[in-house]
User: What shape does this take?
Amino acid sequence: MGYECFDVAVSDKVARIRMNRPDKANSMIAAFWRELPEIVDGLSASGDVRAIVLEAEGRHYCSGMDLSVFAGNDDVRPGGSGHRSRRNERFRSTAMKLQDTFTALERSRVPVLCAIQGACVGGAIDMISAADMRYATADAFFSIAEINIGMTADVGTLQRMPKLVAEGIVRELAYTGRKWSAQEAFEAGFVNKVYDDHEALLAGVLEIAAEIASKSPMAIWGTKQTMHYTRDHSVADGLEFIANWNAAHFDTDDMAEAFAAQMEQRPAEFPDLWPLSEGL
Assistant: This one.
């Protein structure tokens, strides 16, 4: 299936979702917000994908929300037409739909790795904050740019980013809208690794994705679910969650295969996750 904003390819259990509008700095037009959750949810449901790499063509990763999304939209213009309460509710509903686009990265049963080059600003920060890991080129930079156009970021940055780096850093970036270099982001723990250039970035991230894809997909899914749950709950609640998860999902066959593969010095072979479309 063709998409307006993305190219999608799957090889050796790793899916590559590539933003394909480099001439527009991969800005987020209306189609972007519809297509991304459809793609990610579909890959997650398929059961035969074990890692997702979210990458981009061109000089810049993503310049955030395209201004065309706001064109002619009375909900975001002062003095817009219509009843105020209805405009406000429509604005709220739209914001929540946009939020769900990036929540799709969290609810995916497989890890999402972002390979970032050049500019990553505005809505792009919302997006990558919802991913599992972030990797960048040395020339990459980040900006919570919403403050520069007189608004508060509302699609996930302010909720997720403080769980990844110190709150004071997020406040400074959100209050000033300044550029944050890849090296600063790495030192703060937001970025996992910095690569010299785009070619090295993609090679490195795909290698990590392949390593993830070689593991038990059920164990990877359980790890992702547990870390998300623990992030938002107490230690005691997190411990109970993983006890319940393993009681329900721990697969002794996967463990036996992992041990056998190590002993025989060969790659392990694990069954795919159950396709979510089956049995409905």
